[in-house]
Amino acid sequence: MMIMARAAAHVAAAHGTAADYRSKTPHEAVEVAQMETPHQGFFLTRSYELRHPRFDGRMSPPLRREVFVATDASIVLPYDPRRDRVLLVEQFRMGPFGRGDAYPWMLEPVAGRVDAGETPETTAHRECQEEAGLALYGLEKVSAHYCSPGDSTEYFHVFIGLCDLPEVSQGRGGLETEHEDIRTHILSYEQAMGLLDSGEAEAGPLVLALLWLAKSRDRLRATA
């Protein structure tokens, strides 16, 4: 599954996006002398020896660069515009743990890998059902972006997922087959925005989705 998902992400990337201000120098202009795969498992890393065109027209000297090869992912902040509240998921995360964070459990939007043959929108609907038992009736695109372009191929498709949220403040979610241990939180809009002020919103996609929601909230509520 991971091999196919990584391959699908590679195919999707070949289409490219806008290049109105950045260089239009193509992928093929980079000269790869050697490529190795130091680690290949659930995660994969690649090591390159390469040269790339410089802005002054010359080629760079030979460079050694490593990249973490990941998949595309869909990330969804479920929002109920009628009741004006959001759902967040909480789970243990290796990134904060490996960094030594005092509290390695994170509040995040719903998220999951875009499998081969899926669109980001299809993944968004599937993951909301699997992680939180939610059926979305609409999707609003927030952004599509690299999360850490200096060292990772991971690409995020971020959405606001329109839905009806239940009255409960906490619940459970996730798939036992994927060993997911997920707690869900339903917060009012004001409580969710308070996470930005307190710093408890530490996941980049959550910060981005909340800021987008603040900009678009009136429109979403007016048409709910």
From TrEMBL:
This protein's record includes keyword Hydrolase: yes
Keywords: Hydrolase, Magnesium, Metal-binding
E.C. designation(s): 3.6.1.13
InterPro entries membership: NDP_pyrophosphatase (IPR004385), NUDIX_hydrolase-like_dom_sf (IPR015797), NUDIX_hydrolase_dom (IPR000086)
GO molecular-function terms, A-Z: ADP-ribose diphosphatase activity; ADP-sugar diphosphatase activity; metal ion binding
Domain of life: Bacteria
Keyword hit for Zinc-finger: no
NCBIfam families according to UniProt: nudix-type nucleoside diphosphatase, YffH/AdpP family
Protein name: ADP-ribose pyrophosphatase
Species whose genome carries this gene: Roseovarius faecimaris
